[in-house]
Design a protein that fits this description.
The complex is a heterodimer of chains A (about 400) and B (about 70).
Chain A lengths: L14 H14 L6 E12 L5 E6 L4 E6 L1 H4 L11 E11 L4 E11 L2 H17 L17 E6 L4 H13 L4 E6 L7 H14 L5 E6 L13 H9 L4 E5 L7 H5 L2 E3 L2 H8 L6 H37 L2 H43 L1 H6 L4 E4 L17 E6 L2 E6 L8
Parallel strand pairs in A: 3-5, 6-7, 6-8, 8-9, 9-10
Antiparallel strand pairs in A: 1-2, 1-4, 2-3, 4-5, 11-12, 12-13
Helix pairs in contact in A: 4-8, 5-6
Chain B lengths: L1 H5 L3 H17 L4 H24 L3 E4 L5
Helix pairs in contact in B: 2-3
Classes of the chains: A alpha/beta (about 400), B mainly alpha (about 70).
């Protein structure tokens, strides 16, 4: 072996020396490397360093186990108390306490069948508690100005989400709550990432994302604690885990299940993408409403003007003027007829006067006879005697004559 | 007024624009008021447009990853 002489009373080993010997023996043994151990987990605890410590046990014995952070990051499951699982690793010795332990590099559930049975069991529990009810699903905000993203910043899925949001909703803000999305550490980290966003009220909606991968890669999203964190998130959640064909536990309890991370980003921007069109519509509505308003006012003004014209005194004035005209006509007619009567009367008077005018009689051939000596008008034949001079006046002059004989009375 | 609009965030300007449209639709105001509201609405729409044109997605990371 490793010492020259067997240690005895005179030549003892120190504890450290012995432990070092044991360590050398155990860690050097090929039989104790790359071995698979089956057992039930207890006293599981993760330290701030990221390392896991737990105990594997069965009915008869127990085995201390350690899983370094680097190994933990790549496991499909975490060592949860009570879980039966397979652990692979090598036996190492922790010298300070003189204890041997299994240094775990892989953890596997006890057969995939068990894993799915476990999943169904958890799912049934969530269903029974009503956490998957459609009535619990909340409406997603139409315009999520701050979009929380729970994912690994290094993953392609995150870039996919950013690309979609950049294209569809550049006005928004992304709040990345970083977490591992696979490995034993992933479930508690995802839970904390969700809680961080909720606690600080840091966003309007939470996308829980992971790109495609094997079912083991996605297994963190089948963890009960992750499903419960999603279900109990005060902020509405959208899950986009894996590809379209993958469904993980979180999909049943989120407010909206998107088939992929990109689809999740598209879902939360389903209205936001139309913002430019809404602004355009708003401007169009403004113009249309203002034009309609002005048209309406113009129409009302025209109508009022028409009514005013209808009610104006002009028409009454016109009709009054007509009446006056008509009256004036009638008055004129009356006056004329009266005048003609007067004219007629005047004419007849004139005629009478003419008749009385001796010169008129003379015109008709009568003659006026006067005595030559005294000019007296001779009215009777008896007023003259033969031989007496008389003056006879006719229409255009007079002449003297001598009575030839008396002639006698008629 | 345009100074006030010029410092508005998109969501503010956008909801103010929507409100202006709604109020114009109701039509219960004087002509002068509706002209003023219309002009304000045009400024709000222009503000929204400018913000849309200039927008770039901001990304922020919350601390306490582990």
């Amino acid at each position: 072996m490793m010492f020259d002489e067997r240690p005895d009373k005179d030549n003892p080993l120190t504890v450290s020396q012995l432990t070092a010997q044991v360590k050398g023996i155990l860690e050097g043994s090929l039989l104790l490397r790359n071995i698979w151990i089956q057992g039930e987990v207890s006293n599981a605890r993760q330290y701030a360093s990221g390392h896991w410590y737990f105990t594997l046990k069965d009915g008869g014995s127990s085995l201390k186990c350690v899983m370094w952070r680097s190994a933990a990051a790549n496991q499909p499951i975490a060592p949860e108390d009570g879980a039966s699982l397979l652990a692979r690793g090598k036996i190492t010795v922790y010298e300070r306490s003189g204890e041997y332990q299994l240094q775990v590099d892989q953890l596997r559930p006890l057969g995939v069948g068990d894993l799915y049975a476990q999943l169904e069991e958890i799912k049934a529990r969530l269903v029974a508690e009503g956490l998957t009810d459609a009535s619990r699903k909340r409406e997603l905000p139409a315009l999520p100005w701050r979009i929380g993203v729970v994912t690994s910043p290094d993953a392609a899925a995150f870039q996919d989400v950013l690309n979609v949001l950049r294209r569809r909703f550049p006005l928004g803000e992304v709040i990345l709550s970083p977490t591992q999305v696979q490995g034993a550490d992933a479930p508690p980290q995802i839970v904390r990432a969700i809680e961080r966003l909720n606690a600080g009220d840091l966003c309007d909606v939470i996308l829980v994302c992971r790109g495609g991968g094997s079912i083991e890669d996605l297994w963190a999203f089948n963890h009960e604690m992750v499903a419960r964190a999603v279900a109990l998130s005060r902020l509405p959640t959208v899950t986009g885990v894996g590809h379209e064909t993958d469904t993980t536990l979180v999909d049943y309890v989120s407010d909206y299940r998107a088939p992929t991370p990109s689809a999740a980003a598209e879902t939360v921007t389903r209205f936001a993408v139309d913002l430019p069109a809404y602004v355009e519509q708003g401007r169009f509505d403004l113009d249309a409403l203002m034009a309609a308003r002005l048209d309406g006012l113009r129409g009302a003004l025209e109508q009022t003007e028409q009514r005013m014209q209808a009610a104006s005194p002009e028409r009454a004035i016109q009709s009054a003027r007509q009446t006056v005209d008509r009256l004036a006509d009638r008055l004129g007619a009356r006056t004329e007829s009266r005048l003609s009567v007067l004219h007629e009367r005047l004419a007849s008077e004139a005629r009478a006067l003419d008749a009385a005018n001796p010169t008129g009689l003379l015109a008709r051939g009568y003659a006026l006879v006067r005595r030559l000596d005294n000019g007296a008008v001779v009215r009777s034949a008896s007023e003259v005697e033969a031989g007496e001079g008389i003056t006879i006046q006719v229409q255009d002059g007079r002449f003297n004559a001598r009575v030839v004989d008396e002639g006698g009375l008629l | 007024m345009s100074d006030e609009i010029g410092s508005m965030a998109f969501e503010q300007a956008f909801s103010a624009l929507q409100e202006a449209v709604t109020r114009l639709e109701s039509g219960e105001m004087t002509l002068e008021e509706s002209v003023a509201l219309y002009e304000r609405g045009r400024l709000l729409a222009a503000r929204c447009q400018a913000l849309l044109d200039a927008a770039e997605l901001r990304v922020r990371q919350v601390s306490g990853a582990n």
